[in-house]
Amino acid sequence: MHRVAALLSAVVALSPLIATASEEDSIQLAYNRPHPPAVVASEERELFDDVNAARARRRLPPLVPDPELSDFARQIAEDMAERHYFGHTDPQGRTFQDRLRRARLDYRFACENMAFDQDEQSANAAFLHSPGHYQNIVDPHSHRLGVAVVAAGDGEVFYVEEFSD
């Protein structure tokens, strides 16, 4: 199967609220096989489990599910799917920090991983092979995790991981 994107991603790590320069751009997308955005709950569970498996290999404690972070991740993934963009900053220039503030989520530590890929296994592999994304996964400051997986087309899927203290 042709890969939609092999991780068109940027990493934003905040401690406190300092972001990398790569978060400034968003990429406009055109879907090959579009359909209305749809949450893929089974892949959300797999992605959550895969994050904790990676942490276990490093002898780190598992992250606990955070429904508020998952809702936040889902809003971001659905927004990207509906508005055909990909990035930590939306087309209007709203950043990860802006979204956290708007959602009234206040953390001492927060970071975000995003991928646009064909399936959970590919997205997770890309996260694990990207030094910045992997660092977010195994960061000892993280204690909670929210994930979202939203399909915008066949094999055109957004993966968002939100980590916090």
Layout: helices, strands, pairs:
Layout: E1 12-14, E2 27-28, E3 34-39, H1 41-57, E4 64-65, H2 67-83, E5 85-86, H3 96-102, E6 110-117, H4 120-129, H5 131-138, E7 144-153, E8 156-164
Parallel strand pairs: 4-7
Antiparallel strand pairs: 1-6, 2-5, 3-7, 6-8, 7-8
Instruction: List how many beta strands DSSP finds.
Output: 8
User: Which assembly state applies to the chains in this document?
Assistant: single chain
User: Uncertain runs with pLDDT below 50, 5 residues or more?
Assistant: 1-23
Fraction in helix: 25-40%
What is the gyration radius calculated from CA atoms? 14 Å
Mind explaining what this structure looks like?
This protein is of the alpha+beta class and 165 residues long. The protein is 36% helix and 25% strand. The chain has helices at 41-57, 67-83, 96-102, 120-129, 131-138; strands at residues 12-14, 27-28, 34-39, 64-65, 85-86, 110-117, 144-153, 156-164. Strands 1, 3, 4, 6, 7 and 8 form a 6-stranded mixed beta sheet that branches. A two-stranded antiparallel ribbon has the order 2-5. The longest helix is centred in the first third of the chain and has 17 residues, at 41-57. It is globular and about 40 Å long.
Q: Keywords, please?
A:
alpha+beta; 165 residues; single chain; 5 helices
Task: Give a brief rundown of this model.
By secondary structure, this protein is α+β, with helices and mostly antiparallel strands. It is 36% helix and 25% strand.
